[in-house]
Design brief:
The chain has 430 residues and is an alpha/beta fold. 41% of the residues lie in helices and 12% in strands. The chain has 16 helices and 14 strands. The strands form four sheets. Strands 7-6-5-8-9-10-14 form a seven-stranded parallel sheet, sandwiched between helices. It has a three-stranded antiparallel sheet with strand order 12-11-13, with no helix packed on it. β8, α11 and β9 form a beta-alpha-beta unit. The longest helix has 28 residues. The chain is globular, with a radius of gyration of 22 Å. The N and C termini lie far apart (51 Å).
């Protein structure tokens, strides 16, 4: 669309003072990711990020929508809010006028063409193409170009992102009602289930059982910490545990508190789900048990730790070692549905507890990597480059954009898999 191309040209202009962005409006993970990389672009180019968003529309204009609107309002030293939000309101009015007809035509068009309009038409998509690509008109991907961005340094250098002051104050008042003492440290925990999206079958490889995390929870509370379980009220409730708040089942759950709790936590334990990207946005230390894919999503910060799910090969009639997994095809970790030869099993409660203890017991926040950890990180990057060439993408513009986007994660992530896990499963399988 013409307006999007114009914005791409402005965002690519080194003399233009702002980075203009309408983040993804229907997936919280993609939205948080785009805002984070929008701030990175603003910092490296000496600009300010301006975020525009389309409000939810009623009736015939309604479409699936983001589950947290507060994320559009996060603040940073690299964020620009116009005086009295005049520019944002004007832009919002323009977006509504531009996209309302397309929303209205979606249902009748779907009946006639037997296929709905793509999200590209139903939602504004202003700015994301320039967050990762060197030029808006770039029509090819090259690793040497992606490497010029030095994503590792960018992602490992702290970027101040926070709630706005008035919202911070409001959230702290709600914290008291939640029963979380102001003087304690706490951990956020999110374990994906399929209830919210009703996708138990489609995304089963991304889900896990919260009860397998109880021994790890008890290790945290034993040391004086609290645990705040995040998610929604379709999830399996936790048993009653000391210093644990099953937050989705409290009357204080809100979009604002979701962000506040992640911003304030000591570290975050989470599966690969959209809310994980909010923890990345706030740059919290991350522990990632039950990883079902590793090319696109890996422990991001130096010192972060993860565990891969155990992958069984039906053709070989056995579980695969971690070293083998770094040589398997894309369908062994495709997060929208792995191939028919593969089956995944969750990490055990003992494995999860051991990962948490590895984090809690270390003497420095970024310990030296073991030989297995170094090998895993090296082979992950090599595998990603091979998959880029052969299996992950088709040949069109969106995939050029996605290659640069995913390459930033491949090259920028500085964490690793747990040392005990790798020592057990690098050469041998479960």
């Amino acid at each position: 669309m013409a307006i999007e191309k114009i914005i791409d040209l402005l965002n690519s202009d080194k003399n233009f003072r702002y980075v203009l962005l309408t983040p993804c409006h229907y997936a919280i993970g993609n939205c948080a990711e785009e805002i984070y990389f929008g701030f990175l672009k603003a910092r490296r180019e000496g600009k300010k990020l301006m975020v525009f968003h389309l409000p939810e529309l009623p009736g015939m204009f309604k479409y699936r929508w983001l589950n947290n609107h507060e994320i559009f309002d996060v603040d940073s030293d690299y964020r620009h809010f116009s005086t009295q939000n005049r520019i944002e309101r004007l832009a919002q009015a323009g977006l509504i006028a531009y996209h309302m007809p397309l929303r209205a035509l979606n249902r009748p068009f779907s009946k006639i063409a037997r296929h709905p309009l793509t999200d590209h038409y139903l939602y504004p998509s202003i700015g994301p193409f320039t967050l990762w690509q060197p030029e808006a008109s770039q029509d090819y991907f090259a690793w040497e170009i992606a490497e010029r961005y030095d994503w590792r340094t960018q992602m490992q250098t702290y970027l101040p992102i926070r709630l706005r002051a008035e919202k911070q104050l409001n959230a702290e008042q709600i914290r008291q009602k939640l029963g979380l003492p102001r003087d304690v440290w706490f951990v956020c925990l999110h374990v994906r289930e399929g209830g919210y999206h009703k996708d138990h079958a489609q995304s089963s490889v991304r889900n896990a059982d919260i009860l397998n995390y109880v021994p790890a929870i008890e290790e945290i509370t034993k040391r004086g910490g609290w645990v705040i379980r995040l998610g929604d009220n379709t999830m399996k409730p936790l048993p009653a545990l000391k210093q644990v708040i099953d937050y989705p089942f409290t009357p204080w759950k809100s979009e604002l508190m979701d962000l506040y709790l992640i911003q304030e936590c000591q570290f975050y334990i989470g599966s690969q789900s959209g809310i994980w990207d909010i923890a990345v946005l706030f740059q919290k230390p991350l522990l990632m048990p039950n990883m079902c894919h590793w090319t696109m999503s890996y422990p991001p910060k130096e010192g972060d730790l993860g565990l891969l799910k155990h992958v069984y090969s039906h053709s070989r009639k056995r579980f695969l070692s971690v070293e083998e997994l770094f040589h398997e095809p894309w369908e062994a970790q495709h997060f929208l549905g792995i191939g028919p030869d593969y089956h995944m099993e969750e990490n055990t409660a003992e494995e999860i507890k051991t990962l948490v203890l590895e984090y809690l017991d270390r003497s420095t926040s970024i310990p030296a990597e073991t030989n297995f950890q170094q090998a895993a990180n090296k082979q992950r990057v090599a595998q990603a480059k091979q998959l880029f060439e052969k299996q992950m993408f088709d040949r069109h513009r969106d995939d050029i954009y996605n290659k640069y986007r995913i390459a930033s994660r491949v090259l920028g992530c500085g964490g690793t898999l747990g040392s005990h896990f790798l020592a057990n499963y690098w050469k041998t399988s479960k």
